Amino acid sequence: MRQLLPTAPDDITMEALDLIYANDARPRPATRPWILSNMIVSTDGATAIGGRSGQLGGPADWRAFHALRAVADVIMVGAGTARAEHYGPPKVTEEQQARRVARGQAPVPRIALITGRLDLDLGSALFVDSPVRPLVFTGTRPSADQLAAASEVADVIIAGTDNVDLVAATVALHDLGVNIVLSEGGPTLNGHLAEADLFDEKCVTIAPLLVGGSAPRSVHDADLAHPLDLRLDRVIEDGGMLLLRYVRAN
After folding, report:
1. Which domains does the chain have, with CATH numbers?
2. pLDDT of residue 22
């Protein structure tokens, strides 16, 4: 594994990724948390093979995935992605937990599910086995019974009407003292974040695969008034796989 940017080519270990991502500057904006996304894509931009992203990955991407989770206070994910990828409680090593506590964070990040319809499997491991109650952001469409059932296993926050208002959701997270939010998508959620101008950082792994198909891009179906200007901050290469970090240019 080699870091190609910002320094001269330099061999690094898998274990070093934890500290590399943890030491990145992420200043919280005034009214919301710092928001970053992490996705893996093929060389032709596909975000999944057969509906799942895992087949694109490898050891370096998997390590970066967990390193970024260990940085975040909250991991945001759309309900559809949580179902497709069989989400469970976040896994954070004892060493990562110790570093989190030393930074003033909770030992384990919280999952925040985004769902307009509240169509969740409340008996899944994500809810019943999590060491910390997940957050659920929804709108006004769910019934009182749905809200009551979800509130048994999660902290439910109404943000928006038919769909979740992501600006309101991020303000609510700010009010809860959240500094860093990691969006793991899916692509539609990332598109909504981009439309709301809520991105500060984009981490993307490019797998050395060409897969074809009709999988969406990592930021999908976003109607942007203008492209978001990003600055390439880091490039790490491992076996042809590229780990890229971009930050907002302005």
Report:
1. 2-21+33-248 (3.40.430.10)
2. 94
